[in-house]
Amino acid sequence: MARRRDEALKDQKSSKDEGSMEGKGLESEKSILDEGNLDDEDMTPLEKNLSLEAELVKAKAKAEDYYGQLQRMQADFDNYRKRTQKEKTELIKYAAERLVGELLPVLDNFDRAVSAAKINPDFTSFSQGVEMILRQMQTALSKEGLRAMEAVGQPFDPNLHEAVLRVDSEDHPENTVVEELQKGYYLKEKVLRPCMVKVCN
Length: 201
Description:
Elements: H1 2-17, H2 21-36, H3 45-93, H4 97-119, H5 123-143, E1 146-148, E2 161-167, E3 177-182, E4 185-187, E5 190-193, E6 195-200
Parallel strand pairs: 2-6
Antiparallel strand pairs: 1-4, 3-6, 4-5
């Protein structure tokens, strides 16, 4: 065993002299460790030095690999952040696109009604046309989650109602909404606009 170790050390020394320590030196060191199967206590200082150098080279290679992976991950994350920011900006910019698309037929019908009223000023036909357009608009907005509040006869709720007048009434209990001056609306479950109401004293 000692002879094999000495031979391996000679090979190592000759390869070191030739200036190829990184290539052949590591192979020689590996052969020393494999063939001799030595413990740390049995190693000479030169063998320990070679072992440590091999571990250092391996650790440097691992560190470089991890650093490369980190750089790629950072670049990927940066690209992802820029892409999501762009998508968010586009989403905000065109958030009303679907709603506007739903309202375009309503706008077309208003144009037709105005044109027809100029040609034939029949108030009854015009009124019926406007009512149809109103229903069409309500349908389009209800698809987006808009719904009107029912206020008259309900107890006054400051979260839903905006009291602009207080009136005396024998027909309604105290603190009840008597009249709706302006409609209030929900958008899905959120109060979009409170009702403007008269409240009984």
